Amino acid sequence: MNDAIRSELTVDGRRLSYLDFGGAGRPLLALHGHLSEGAVWARLADELRGEWRVIAPDQRGQGESERAADYSREGYLADIEALLDHLGLEKVVLLGHSLGGINAYQFAARHPERVEAIVDVEAPVELGLEGPNPLAFLLDLPYGAPSRDELIAALGPAAPYFADRLREDADGGWRLPFHPKDMYDSEELVHGDHWADWTATTCPALLVRGSAGVIPAEQAEWIVARRPGTVAVELVGDHLLPISAADELAATVREFLATL
Fold first, then answer.
1. Domain range enclosing 96
2. What three-state secondary structure class fits 47?
3. Measured between alpha carbons, how far is 22 from 9 in angstroms, rounded to an integer?
4. Is the full-model pTM beyond 0.90?
């Protein structure tokens, strides 16, 4: 994971952990999506090394960050503000994938003076208005077990997706790096029509869409058309571009940042 330094701050009595990939470059805050954590941005940090200082928090309830009392939009945005204040950063580029991308452009809408540019990776502007919660499958998963082997067995077909990120607790038990119910609730609360937030800012913005991702082509066209200063790039890949197309995504982001 490069030479990233893990640090933390306390927000409302709970730990918010983050990775700082360091360097003297301009600051870029990278926000992961649901079921992920800040370490997913290691490849991006490598690509930007020397020009950008990538800081990647584990968002509330995920990775090394403690569970929160709620997973509201306001809660996520307050965490971003607290982290920027903690680091003494007045203005940053905000990059986010999925949940993180929505958090990025909503934070920019409320604090435009603190955001130099937005990079939206597979984060829709209108989502979940109809249909079931796509994270409903999580409600069938266990949160923890007495041993790692028992937890992997209990996770069944989901085990390969999380096996390398399981956490060991102080009592010797093992758990997922998130609570299934927390993430289900978070997904419910991120759904909505967010066009007002997306169009509220005028800073440069990049939309990165996967060819087999979750943003329909028509919505991607409107995302660019309705917000001046926005450009779009489509990469071959699914919704999980930070993993499925990590090299291509890193190169795309670097090219965009060079235009700022």
1. 5-126+193-257
2. helix
3. 17
4. yes
